[in-house]
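Protocol step 4 of 6: structure prediction from sequence.
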Amino acid sequence: MGQTLIRTIHEIEGVRVAGALERAGSPAIGKDAGELAGVGPIGVAITDDPLPAFASADGVLDFSIPAVSVEFAGYAAQARIVHVIGTTGCSTDDEAKIAAAARHATIVKSGNMSLGVNLLAVLVEQAAKALDPEDFDIEILEMHHRHKVDAPSGTALLLGEAAAAGRAIGLAENSVRSRDGHTGARKAGTVGFATLRGGSVVGDHSVILAGPGERITLSHQADDRSIFARGAVKAALWARERKPGLYSMRDVLGLGAA
């Protein structure tokens, strides 16, 4: 994803890479970020020290792991800069720390940065609101590549939150994450999740609203990671004009709150 971000930034006028970060011990440390991404030298060496990057950048695009995103949110708060977070799998405690950092940093956080997925979330919310939960069951199916470490995906949870918002319920109390064995009948009003992993799938998501005698399927397929990178850059440029706070891609795209 880091290489995709660099290639995307290289193609957009008015933005440039100010720093590139990798985990300690990575073989990429010291290499030119542009050369590694395939766009040629850009004069930015990859490092594992975030402080110089945060000191020189107007914004940070972060697709890492929860512990790192929490750390970076703190640095962004100190530097009073934009922090775009595409990291998924954050715990409730992680979310609270990021929200605290947003008192001083302008943070845009989303389970998915693509325009299509966020439009899908709006449609899911509207459909969930319109259809009686006693008649229509909601199931969310997602598939990603074999290397993805968190499940359900951040996008699946984003869509689940949209469905829950449409029905004015809490997702945490009404979600079913796994089924195995003799589970009994499905409880009306719950939101089910199914997770598939394999191959090199970038990201497939479907929201199925199953009623008596009919099914509605709302879906999105991601074929190229550049859609997330373009969304992240768009979010960073939008956030530069905003006050500190915690925002979502719905805010960036003017789609309204979940």
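Step 5 (inspection) to follow. The radius of gyration is 19 Å.
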